[in-house]
Design a protein that fits this description.
The complex is a heterodimer of chains A (355) and B (551).
Chain A: H1 4-25, H2 29-57, H3 88-101, H4 103-106, E1 109-114, E2 118-123, H5 126-145, H6 155-164, H7 166-170, H8 185-203, H9 205-210, H10 213-236, H11 240-251, H12 263-278, H13 286-292, H14 320-333
Antiparallel strand pairs in A: 1-2
Helix pairs in contact in A: 1-10, 1-12, 2-12, 5-6, 5-8, 8-10, 10-12
Chain B: H1 7-11, H2 40-45, H3 67-81, H4 83-90, H5 103-108, H6 115-130, H7 132-137, H8 148-158, H9 166-170, H10 177-189, H11 196-208, H12 216-234, E1 241-242, E2 249-252, H13 256-259, H14 263-281, E3 285-287, H15 303-320, E4 324-327, H16 332-345, E5 371-373, H17 374-383, E6 399-402, H18 405-409, H19 415-424, H20 455-461, H21 463-476, E7 480-483, H22 486-499, E8 504-507, H23 508-515, H24 542-550
Parallel strand pairs in B: 1-3, 2-3, 2-4, 4-5, 6-7, 7-8
Classes of the chains: A mainly alpha (355), B mainly alpha (551).
């Protein structure tokens, strides 16, 4: 039985305790509110740059896109420009669809044996739905958080907030508005999607079998982030002004640690810091890697345009001359043309295969 | 074949993984699954390291003393040389979308045949040796040191992958297990760990120009056998040309088509097509005995070996002074030509940009590599009405088409073969959508695995393909499985015999040969297999037909 999730869960619980005890009990607010976030952002940026530069340093010796549609060949055959892109423009469209719509994952099927002997493949959309929901909800949450880092709050953040919390739109002029924050759909979707992805990993036997602790850890961590966020907004109701003082202090490089922010806020911040610092060293780098994936980001016109290999080197080959030297007599006998005339050797061993 | 489990047993295997984690499940090298070790003579001939007699079933694999160091350095080198490899090591999220896309996982139920785990076999070592997190966290971070058991696991599972790329279609990041397997096999080859079904064809190809080791005079003789058979069918004596300098086109096809049925019938189809084009339009096509192999088992050994074997194509085209090269029906041959050849051995500036002299069509998609696929060529001829065809001669065939993995996912060749099939025969039915085109299932024997000793693996791996054939066989009465790959033509007949015994296998140009009306031919009474044609029953006896059909 794969118990990897226990390690990951324990790690996240430990992180929670560290942050909570560190701030609420020991009062190390400067460390958790300033030092660690700065450190995390530094690791995040340097780590990502380092990783991507590492990838970029590796060569792309061959043109190996996976062709998922008809090639461009004869003029009367309609080619599939997106799934078999023969031009850079088409590759860009393929990549945009891959990155924004998870097009490949959209194809997902599930194999089943029916009537005991017939293999069937059904369209399996839930992984795609939950992955898309997860990523877009996360994106919305991140953009919404820009409110805490930019003053005045940019219009698009306000717009997004309005869309995201359409419950509030309806009670905009209501007396309740002050006391009742709008419900942000994104936070709930994020929590739901992360829960689904986690359950999927735990319940489907094959996925559970392949899962490492490193697969559970970010899920538990993000669950923790979303959960503490929601907790602060709807239940413990933290002092948003104080929080913004802290975050604005961070981005303006004049860090201050205002009083009146609860331990949960620091747990939230510590979780986020952990995620940022963990990001470059983990599978979360798929976010960057997908752009560099040679099976997706290359044109399929490899017979039309030569791809250069930077480390192409000469190799030993068996030349035609060597070939003819070995088989000349037989070739002449069989009536095959030869480059050099055959002269019967005087009295030499006939074995010329030794090389 | 007697040791094989029954088809019903194979269908109902348990695909749920066991209770023990995969890292704790030691590898088991099984008879029926594993291929025999490479013959040391073959390794020696091409200068591959560590040639020796060994067996994968032995405890001791007679590895060099410093084998771990060799693997570590080899891994390092390849991480720098191949961005694909490095990225695929880093970005897998183990979502599991690839798991049930692999024909070997569907067929064997072995969890390490899930593409994700096949890659994890290397990734675990990569993490341990090359990443900070892996070094600190060890097993907790999914890393493990390179041990003999790990090495044997690599060997076992990288020779249970046909590099078909089906998983890479579904992977949200395009992670291509073929790429992982190619690297895995390169690393194994550094220790002299190849299988004989690859190592010996490679050595043969290097020496004689083809995998089967057919020497030039014998190659010519074999083609002349086909000429005799064609004479029996058409009454015409064809005169194929060999190693002819100054010909218009050099034709290269897998040597399997010269050697064994039903590829031989496809080969006869080529001969008839070229004869027709010569008689009618004066097109001058030559075969070569030096470049007498389209396939490239070097591709299953290392990038270097692929280049060494592939070099003959351009070298021969240059020596003969042809205008461009035409390539026959083959799978991985076309992956190599389409995605590698120009890069490896180009630029082919001594050749002309391919133009079909009969139709005037410029093959712009082959402008640089200067090699055209025969179904592109034939489809163009048919579209321009340049071939005289009688599709009714294929009326006894009810055809479906198996997209070969490499032309499908490494090229995008889907419509050309279908157009040709629909032009030369009247009864065609597609298999279900999830089993064709870019989602096609492998024959289960590609990338050098079509040996005799791993028949159980091949039958299991080919099961999804066979299952789809069975479906159209039962629904539409399909009796002929067409393909454009020489390995398919070798591997699908036993697969059909095992799973769908009433379906036979053909290359597309066999059907072209049947339908093609050669100038001055006699009235055809038999097809290229010397079986009576359906429309001439009045002149032949009904019983003969039935007997022949049994074969």
């Amino acid at each position: 039985m794969n118990k990897h999730y226990l390690y990951a869960l324990s790690a996240v619980i430990a992180l929670f305790l560290v942050a909570y005890v560190g701030t609420a009990v020991l009062g190390l607010r400067l460390i958790f509110g300033v030092l660690i976030p700065y450190l995390a952002v530094t690791v995040f940026i340097v780590g990502i740059v380092y990783k991507i530069m590492g990838w970029a340093r590796s060569a792309v010796p061959f043109c190996i896109p996976t062709t998922c549609g008809q090639q461009k060949s004869l003029p009367w055959i309609r080619s599939n420009k997106i799934d078999c892109p023969s031009s850079t423009g088409a590759v860009i469209i393929r990549m945009i669809l891959e990155v924004t719509c998870f097009r490949s994952l959209f194809r997902n099927t599930k194999m089943r044996l029916e009537e005991g002997n017939r293999l069937t493949y059904k369209w399996e959309i839930w992984l795609w739905v939950s992955a898309l929901a997860f990523h877009y909800a996360f994106l919305v949450v991140i953009v919404r958080h820009l409110r805490l880092f930019i003053e005045p709050v940019p219009f698009f953040v306000r717009m997004l907030e309005n869309v995201d919390s359409f419950f509030r739109v309806e009670v905009l002029y209501d007396a309740f508005q002050v006391g009742l924050p709008g419900i942000y759909l994104s936070g709930l979707v994020l929590l739901a999607a992360v829960t689904f992805l986690l359950l999927r990993r735990l319940v489907i036997p094959q996925v559970r079998y392949i899962s490492l602790a490193a697969d559970y850890f970010p899920l538990f961590l993000i669950f923790g982030i979303a959960f503490t966020g929601i907790l602060m907004r709807y239940v413990t109701k933290i002092d948003v002004t104080a929080a913004k003082t802290l975050t604005m202090g961070l981005v303006t490089l004049h860090p201050t640690v205002p009083a009146g922010i609860g331990g949960i806020f620091y747990v939230h911040l510590f979780f986020v810091s952990t995620l940022l610092a963990y990001f470059p060293f983990s599978k979360l780098m798929h976010a960057g890697g997908v752009f560099l994936s040679p099976t997706r980001n290359m044109t399929t016109n490899s017979r039309e345009k030569r791809h250069e290999n930077p480390w192409n080197y000469p190799v030993p080959i068996h030349t035609y001359e060597e070939y003819e030297d070995e088989f000349r007599e037989k070739m002449v006998e069989a009536g095959l043309p030869v480059d050099k005339p055959f002269v019967k050797p005087a009295e030499e061993p006939a074995d010329s295969s030794a090389k | 074949m007697s040791d094989l489990p029954k088809p019903e047993e194979m269908l109902t295997i348990d695909r749920r993984p066991g209770a023990t984690g995969w890292m704790d499940t030691p590898v088991e090298i099984k008879k029926g699954i594993a291929c025999y070790a490479g013959n040391p003579k073959s390794l020696e001939y091409t200068g591959l390291p560590n040639p020796r007699t060994w067996s994968c079933f032995d405890e001791d694999w007679q590895l060099p003393e410093n084998w771990q160091e060799i693997i570590h350095n080899g891994l390092k080198e390849r991480l720098e040389k191949f961005r694909s490899f490095k990225i695929f090591m880093d970005i897998c999220v183990r979502c599991g979308a690839c798991a049930d896309k692999c024909h070997f996982f569907i067929g064997t139920g072995d969890p390490k045949n899930m593409p994700v785990l096949r890659a994890e076999l290397i990734r675990s070592v990569y993490r341990n040796d090359f990443t900070t997190a892996g070094k600190i966290l060890g097993r907790l971070g999914g890393g493990r040191p390179m041990t003999l058991n790990v090495l044997k696991e690599w060997w076992s599972y990288f020779f249970q992958c046909t590099e078909c790329r089906r998983c890479s279609v579904f992977c949200p990041y395009g992670i291509d297990t073929a790429e992982i397997t190619i690297m895995g096999r390169e690393l194994l080859n550094l220790l002299g760990l190849n299988i004989d079904w690859i190592a010996t064809p490679v050595a043969n190809c290097y020496r004689t120009g083809n995998h089967l080791g057919i020497q030039p005079h014998a190659f010519k003789e074999m083609i002349e056998f086909f000429v005799d058979d064609i004479e029996e069918v058409t009454g015409l004596q064809l005169q194929p040309q060999f190693n002819k300098k100054g010909a218009d086109i050099l034709f290269i096809t897998p040597s399997g088509d010269v050697f064994a049925d039903p590829g031989t019938f496809t080969c006869m189809g080529y001969l008839m097509l070229f004869h027709f084009l010569k008689e009618k339009y004066g097109l001058d096509v030559t075969w070569s005995t030096y470049a007498s192999e389209g396939g490239n088992f070097g591709f299953f050994t290392s990038h270097e070996m692929m280049k060494r074997l592939n070099s003959k194509m351009y070298a021969e085209a240059k020596r003969l002074g042809v205008k461009w090269i035409l390539g026959g029906e083959c799978g991985h041959m076309w992956r190599v030509i389409h995605q590698y050849m120009d890069t490896l051995n180009g630029p082919a500036d001594f050749l002309e940009e391919p133009v079909n002299p009969i139709t005037g069509t410029k093959f712009e998609n082959a402008r640089s590599t200067k090699m055209v696929h025969i179904t592109e060529f034939t489809a163009d001829l048919i579209k321009h009405g340049k071939l005289d065809l009688d599709p009714s001669r294929n009326d006894h065939l009810n055809v479906t088409f198996h997209d070969s993995c490499n032309p499908a996912r490494g090229m995008g060749l889907f419509e050309e073969p279908r157009y040709v099939i629909n032009s030369v025969c009247n009864h065609f039915h597609e298999m279900p959508a999830n089993t064709i085109r870019e989602q096609t299932f492998c024959c289960g024997s590609g990338s050098g695995l079509n040996a005799g000793e791993d028949m159980e693996l091949r039958m299991a791996g080919g099961m999804p393909r066979a299952n789809a054939v069975k479906y159209v066989h039962q629904k539409h009465g399909v009796n002929m499985l067409a393909c454009i790959c020489a390995i398919d033509r070798a591997a699908l007949p036993p697969l059909m015999e095992y799973w769908v015994p009433d379906v036979d296998v053909t290359g597309i140009h066999e059907m072209v040969g049947n339908a093609l009306i050669l100038p001055g031919e006699q009235k055809r009474e038999v097809d290229l297999r010397l079986e009576p044609l359906p429309n001439v029953e009045t002149e032949t006896e009904g019983e003969v037909k039935e007997e022949a059909a049994d074969e």
